[in-house]
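Structure tokens please, single chain.
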Amino acid sequence: MMLNPVAGEIFCIDKPLEMTSFLAVKKVRNLLCRKLGVRRMHVGHAGTLDPLASGVLIVCTGRKTKQIDQLQVGVKEYIAWIRLGETTPSFDMETEVDATYPWQHITREQIERVLQERFTGAIEQVPPSFSACKVDGKPAYKLARKGREVNIRPKTLVIDEIEVLECGLPAEPTLVVRVVCSKGTYIRALARDIGEALDSGAHLYGLRRTRVGDITVDNCEQLDSLLDRLSQEDYVPVEQAQAELLEQERIANRERALMQKQQRASRKQSRGDMTE
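Here you go.
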């Protein structure tokens, strides 16, 4: 079966480390434009992944980009690698360590208790300064990278599950947790808050998104493999795809007009019955 990027396709990518979500989308868009012989095409992703994170990235094309908001609402699952006793301005390894804290007092039992009591269910979270949240109309990270103070309001989010997968204590101040959460959760900020709740500090040193809605990382293709496959696929020509979409819209409009006509007739009949 031929691919139809104009009508819409959804590609599930296992985004590699050190690549922005924007660049992954750009690579897909450029290849599709080249194959279809067009200069522009609607291509977008359902939920940004930081360059230092890997995992599920859903890319939509054409009319399927209208489903992005729906896909973004899906519950997300992450595996987070956290280092205790150190903080960074970005809450991950994008920036250098700016402070150190005692961590020898922390135990696995304490961690598990804190996670369940303070980080399960609806919680308030202040997004990182190094994020795309808008402050005075500008992305917060642009202001933060200039050294400007950034004040971001806390947001309510939901953490459905959080569990300890590995704990390096007492030998090493490292922690691996699995998090199932709602849209808008910043795992970097979660690491910061966990460190503070343990009377220490913390930052991420690894992050992998393993699920978005019903799509798991096992359902995803490596980006290079996807690009190789797309370069060999057959495609519905743009003119044919546009004509088919136009005909579908005409049919839908006729059906909608017929339904409205039937509803008006039904209301008129109901008013007539009431006057008899």
